[in-house]
Known about the structure:
The chain is α/β, with parallel strands linked by helices. The protein is 33% helix and 20% strand. The strands form 2 sheets. Strands 1, 4, 5, 6, 9, 10, 11, 12, 13 and 14 form a 10-stranded mixed sheet that branches. A hairpin with a 4-residue loop joins β13 (239-242) and β14.
Amino acid sequence: MTYDVLTLGRISVDVYPNDIGVSLADVTSFGKYLGGSATNVAVAAAQHGREAAVITKVGDDDFGTFLERELDRYNVDRSQVTRDASLQTPVTFCAILPPDDFPLYFYGRFPMAPDWNINTSEIDLDAVKKSKIFWSTVTGLSREPSRSAQLAAYEARPASSLAEGQFTILDLDYRPMFWDSVEQAREQVTQALASATVAIGNDTECTVAVGEGTPDEQADRLLEAGVQIAVVKLGPEGVMAKTRTERVVSAPVPVQTANGLGAGDSFGGAFCHGLLSGWPLEQVLDYANAAGAIVASKVACSDAMPTPQEVNALLAERGRTVPASQKDLVQP
């Protein structure tokens, strides 16, 4: 099968408090959700009507069963989701302290988690080669054997072999607790960038990848590393994308932030949808920005991934351009 979006990487049970604005010590009840950046991107892409799949691994336990059921519920193909009887499915707790404090606590991930224990033999490299978009994250490069598996996936679809409309996207998702040092992370990111055609990251992530500098300088270095599109998130100033011939900036879509986690994954799934739709880069960014804003305004991540109708309604409400191919989805 040829997927629109095939992701590789982290999966977990996200446990979010029902009590907002207090520390975990004072939370009295929680809700559980499917989580993990690469998995959330697949969910987001599926919500936009894309054929999406994820390559990952869960523990052979009830939490693994929960995640498999959630993938089915979100219409994400899990034919490449396997179970690891030697490891437990990881759980991630988060405190929700709006507007900008959402600390994460990882349990069952150290020293090893199932999605870091993916072997090359467990990946359908033909599916990787044929997928329109292959999405992976820096996190998968932080441990073996997932590092070698991820590099093997890149080798199956070298940038020079990609057809028009195919993209290899590297999410620069850098989490310092997963690495021994910035230098170690930069070494792995540099190797991965040679296979990517699109790189996406915020200021910190771009600094790890290509060093300190202005957003334009960082984007230029990503292009020099070989990508065709460099996307640099500008925080409260929106997001910028650069190619060798174009520079576009999408202004932020302000919302009342409930939980900043998951917004980047929603952005990613919507960005994939826009690329595959062939929209101008500025419209791709605007659409992805709006999709990220919707998730930031809600507590859950996977459960909050918006449909095209929701994204287009927000664009129209804020006076932004709705992509021509989506205008019939906006209620008059």
